[in-house]
């Protein structure tokens, strides 16, 4: 099948399927009809994405691929078949890399630079409750509780763990990069030839 | 004619070493035996032109210019025997720096090629994996120390009352700094450049002061001494000082 | 072909290929041999990932897939074929990948051969301030801060990241071509002069 536009052959269906496949593999978010047409430019304006997706999906099913095309959030995405979930879990267990939510990262950053700190200190900087991020970070052994504040409230004090230091190759908390040290790097204007 | 530099040349150098390598190659100079007077002149012409075109603030280039002039001066002195029979060529250190830089500059072109080769390929980005109950907060791919630092900086900036310290724009001109140095040299026979640096808050003032020294050096109002490449510079009165 | 372990059939090759495919689709970082065995648990300890990858790769080629399996950063990842670049560009706001400046490439070259290095090490070789290149490279995660120098200045140390290997398509920094020796450069220059 060949797609025609004003009598001119545009793209052959097999070529189209390959293009859509490449887009599905590379896209950081679900591939929408609109985005698809941006990618194809003028030649794609008359081609319905849905039709190509349908053909591609049936190919995947017939050839026993371990993934399928899922319609999600107004677009399409490649996801793995449910039966492989038990194996995929292993990719995320005890992963060498930290995977943290933005909230957890913020909490970790505050504890790193301000330790020892109380939950109150953290929350007054972030402006939101930080209970669940503290729990996540304690669970992952990135933070630990070390004693209590020396004031009437006797609030718990949080600080970073040895595991945290090891992960980043630091000998001690004093070795964290200080803001002043990288200020030059962070300065917007510089004198370098770019 | 061959010494004429065109604007197109000016934008292609990564720094003073890159420019020197270019001059050496263009004029087919021997890196073992660099004609220092010639290369210093060409180098200064370039720096002047770059300044005129305001291509960048010339700090690193000015520093190299001072170094070249220092080597040039030392070449004019009778060769001093260093210890027994070893005779130290004042150009040795510069040559070593140029060669070391050249190694990495060559490697840079390899990286450029690898980049070009990899460019058309895109890695598969997996859909976020959500095993049943998982919360839907944004998951960061992986966290680096740099992210922690930036995050803290961002939070603390928003947290603290914006400090209302006025930023005084320092207007410094070359002639002001020439006057300033003249004044200092009236009082003191020898100035340390590192010592001067401590007096200045901004990089701009440092650079302008350096340009002033360079200017005075060319008019022979001052002499500049440096014992080693990138060591402190010592500024003293020159033959036309006070004229 | 069936994989046997102590006389017991473990997994049939087609099933294995599907599992590896699912892992490749789901992994956010290169799939290493070690991670593969974590995912498979006990049943996978005798199965060489490399062999399954080879079979899968040849399937993809034969069936005209728009992607292939790349060996990178000590593992395997799915990557799109070069011919689809012009379409894929449209997925990203800045129309595809930004190229690194000459200054950033120089800085990267120095770090990759001399790591771990301080900013001073970099600047004394380049002869220019390298703040903005360092910033670009940290922002793009091609470099990372790794601890501090073990000397009085305690300067921050920089080294290349996994993303660096991915960006340049390298399996390890050991795969970089050897840096030319000064003597070779001199010898060549002498020849040029003749």
Explain how this protein is built.
- The complex is a heterotrimer, with 2 copies of chain A (194 residues) and 1 copy of chain B (243 residues).
- Chain A is an alpha+beta fold and 194 residues long.
- In chain A, the strands form 3 sheets. Chain A has a two-stranded antiparallel ribbon.
- In chain A, strand 3 and strand 4 (75-80) form a beta hairpin.
- Chain A contains 9 helices and 6 strands; from the N terminus they run ββαααββααααββαα.
- In chain A, helix 1 packs across helix 3 and helix 5 (102-114) packs across helix 7.
- Chain B has 2 domains: 2-79 and 87-118, no CATH class; 136-158 and 171-237, Arc Repressor Mutant, subunit A (Orthogonal Bundle).
- Chain B contains 9 helices and 3 strands.
- Chain B has a 3-stranded antiparallel beta sheet with strand order 1-3-2.
- In chain B, strand 2 and strand 3 form a beta hairpin.
- The model of chain B is unreliable at 130-138 and 161-168 (pLDDT under 50).
- Chains in contact: A-B, A-C, B-C.
């Amino acid at each position: 099948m060949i797609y025609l536009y004003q009598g001119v052959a545009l793209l052959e269906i097999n070529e189209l399927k390959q293009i859509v496949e490449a887009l599905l593999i590379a896209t950081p978010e679900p591939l929408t009809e609109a985005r698809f047409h941006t990618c194809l430019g003028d030649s794609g304006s008359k081609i319905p994405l849905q039709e190509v997706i349908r053909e591609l999906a049936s190919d995947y099913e017939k050839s026993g691929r371990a993934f399928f095309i899922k319609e999600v959030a107004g677009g399409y995405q490649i996801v793995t078949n449910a039966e492989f979930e038990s194996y995929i879990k292993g990719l995320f267990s005890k992963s060498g890399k930290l995977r943290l939510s933005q909230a957890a990262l913020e909490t970790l950053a505050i504890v790193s630079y301000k330790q020892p700190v109380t939950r109150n200190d953290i929350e007054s900087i972030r402006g939101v409750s930080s209970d669940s991020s503290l729990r996540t970070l304690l669970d992952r052994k990135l933070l630990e509780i070390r004693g209590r504040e020396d004031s009437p409230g006797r609030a718990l004090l949080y600080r970073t763990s040895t595991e945290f230091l090891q992960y980043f190759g630091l000998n001690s908390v004093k070795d964290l990069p200080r803001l002043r040290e990288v200020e030059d790097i962070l300065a917007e204007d510089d004198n370098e030839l770019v | 004619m061959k010494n004429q530099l065109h604007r197109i040349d000016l934008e292609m150098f990564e720094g003073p070493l890159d420019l020197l390598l270019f001059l050496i190659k263009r004029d087919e100079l021997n890196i073992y035996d660099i004609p220092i007077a010639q290369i210093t002149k060409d180098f200064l012409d370039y720096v002047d032109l770059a300044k005129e075109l305001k291509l960048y603030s010339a700090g690193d280039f000015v520093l190299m210019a001072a170094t070249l002039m220092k080597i040039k001066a030392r070449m004019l002195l009778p060769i001093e025997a260093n210890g027994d029979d070893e005779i130290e060529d004042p150009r040795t250190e510069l040559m070593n720096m140029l060669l070391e830089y050249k190694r990495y500059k060559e490697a840079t072109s390899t990286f450029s090629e690898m980049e070009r080769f990899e460019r058309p390929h895109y890695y598969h980005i997996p859909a976020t994996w959500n095993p049943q109950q998982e919360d839907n907060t944004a998951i960061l791919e992986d966290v680096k120390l740099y992210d922690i630092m930036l995050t803290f900086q961002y939070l603390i900036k928003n947290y603290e009352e914006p400090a209302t310290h006025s930023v005084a724009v320092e207007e410094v001109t070359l002639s002001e700094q020439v006057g300033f140095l003249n004044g200092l040299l009236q009082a003191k026979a020898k100035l340390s450049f590192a010592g001067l640096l401590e007096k200045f808050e901004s990089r701009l003032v440092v650079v302008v002061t350096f340009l002033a020294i360079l200017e005075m050096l060319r008019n022979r109002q001052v002499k500049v001494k440096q014992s080693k490449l990138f060591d402190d510079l010592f500024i003293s009165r020159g033959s036309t000082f006070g004229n």
